[in-house]
Amino acid sequence: MHGRPAEDDRLTAIEQALWAAPPHELIEVATRLLERHAGAAGVDVLLIDYRQTHLVRAEAGEADDDVPVDNTAAGHAFAAQRTVRDGDATHLPMSVRGERLGVLTARFADGGPPWLEDLATVLARALKIADQGTDLYRRLRRRTRLTLAAEMQWDLLPPPSYAAAEFSFAGQLEPAYAVWGDNFDWSVSAERLTLTVSNGMGSGTDSAALTHLAISALRNARRSGAGIAEQAELGDQTLFARHRGEQHVATLLLEFDLGTGRVRVVDAGSPRIYRMRGGATDGIGFDAQMPLGMFGDTRYTTEEFTAEPGDRLVVVSDGVHGALSPSGVPFGRSALPQALRATRLQEPPEAVRTMIRRFVEYHEGDGPADDAVITCVDWTGRGTG
């Protein structure tokens, strides 16, 4: 009883020091504070890499020092999003509103102070902000060099996962270090969630630049208050004005009403949506409309369906459902439905990570012929009480 105020004061002092740390010194400051004020015998800050297969040590210089997510204690803390104790090591997940940043590992002879989980949360928030002021953490997270096209795409992306009262979302690109034109974007307000999954034609920086222009046009329309049909029309006009119909971007636009679960849809290309409801999995089909940039004067129309509490919606680009195994079998024929069923009980971030791993393994060592995106929305909806 008498020790608690002192512990609270100590945590407050550590939090203040973290917020005051320069962005590029945050990890060093956190390590020093834990060793000095919590008696940690050692501290590691592990950041998830772009592919989400390894946790990268912030103080390490060699890829051999990275920690696999699969079959390790630290990886289990990351995947399960819960504290894991392994001998004298305590592994604490670091996340911000559902976005998984990595793991804080600290070693104690006595298990450590009771406020470690609170500290991991504060450190995650501080890292999220610090990432905007330095290249250090983006450099640490890459286990190999990103191509220029991939650099463009990752800079364009919103956070790859998010959790709210009404839904939980996650998305991932592959190949993470060499993606071209595939992309996803999302935005949430008090009334709605808007999600787009796009696939720019071509490869390399030309494809990345094409998608960048399309996403910027969609965002410009959305931030001006336009609905998804008007967003698609501005994207179409913008791309046509630049490329005269020679380059286009296939896009699926979804607008969720957070209060009712009604989903308005514009299907302007090849991304596909699968719904898991109860024990059933089925594709949801829409009237196909022209990809963005094809003609420049397309008038897009919306269709609707309703998401029910407990629904899982998975959107994939054609690089996923159309991918071929070395023997020529499409991934979407049976492997994708199997992956959807196998990950049904996982939270969206882990489900997407697992589906991407199965997608990579499907190529049996060969790299995917096309880039790919997988996004997942678990719909909770608003309670009526």
Automatic annotation (TrEMBL):
Record keyword Cytoplasm present: no
Domain PPM-type phosphatase: 164-379
UniProt keyword annotations, A-Z: Hydrolase
Listed Pfam families: SpoIIE
Entries under Gene3D superfamilies matching the protein: PPM-type phosphatase domain
Top-rank lineage group of the source organism: Bacteria
Record's keyword annotation contains Hydrolase: yes
Protein name from the UniProt record: SpoIIE family protein phosphatase
